[in-house]
Write a structure and sequence with these properties.
Blueprint: H1 6-9, H2 14-25, H3 30-39, H4 51-63, E1 67-73, E2 81-86, H5 88-103, H6 111-116, H7 124-155, H8 163-188, H9 195-198
Antiparallel strand pairs: 1-2
Length: 207
């Protein structure tokens, strides 16, 4: 693929990568792609909830020459369904995306750090309450991941199929540990602020 081709200019996304990854294994229609992602538990890290977004992504992949129509069929139970297959350019792009996504850290601008940058607007007491709610949610998330990992291990799934769960658990556990420290500092007054204490810094140039 050269830099001037539609495939090279395609703006990748986790969903597009997942579609190519699924079609890398076998041709499939969009509903089956969505179902497969959910059955494999990949919907915890890939947003495939909106089927319209999935169809839009497949259309973009087709326009870029990364997937192609394999066949269109109909049976008595379902409306007409288009089966897609990955192209040679699609296989090349899929592996290149995975290589780059794995090797290159990127700032993906999640909501939580953005909200933390303006936490002072809540005040110490409300902030402590909301952070406690987040900590409780993280504990519940860790319990859910642990249950899923235990079930997958009993089922005999290979570890390579569970690496995203391991990663998510590590990230959640690290965030929870950090949150507990912040909550402790808020509780004993080590971390606090007021409009008066922040006023001298309002006109300073941010770092």
């Amino acid at each position: 693929m050269t830099a001037s081709t539609p495939a090279a200019r395609f703006k990748r996304s986790p969903l597009a990568m997942a579609v190519l990854g699924i079609l890398h294994l076998e041709p499939m229609h969009p509903y089956a792609i969505q179902r497969r992602i959910k059955e494999w538990g990949k919907d915890k890290v890939i947003n495939v909830g909106q089927r319209a977004q999935l169809y839009k992504t497949i259309a973009r992949l087709q326009d870029a020459g990364l997937v192609a129509v394999r066949e269109t069929g109909r049976d008595q139970q379902y409306p007409e369904r288009t089966v897609y297959e990955i192209t040679d350019d699609g296989r090349t792009a899929c592996l290149a995306w995975i290589n780059d996504m794995v090797a290159t850290p990127r700032n993906e601008f999640p909501e939580f750090p953005a909200a933390l940058s303006f936490l002072m607007l809540l005040g110490p007491i409300p902030a402590r309450g909301e952070l406690q709610r987040r900590a409780d949610a993280l504990r519940a998330g860790l319990q859910e991941i642990d249950a899923g990992l235990e079930q997958a291990t009993q089922f005999g799934l290979p570890r390579v199929a569970l690496l995203e769960d391991e990663y998510q658990r590590t990230v959640l556990a690290a965030e929870l540990q950090w949150l507990q420290g912040v909550l402790a500092d808020l509780a004993d007054g080590t971390l606090t602020w007021s409009w008066e204490s922040l006023a001298p810094f309002q006109d300073q140039t941010p770092r």
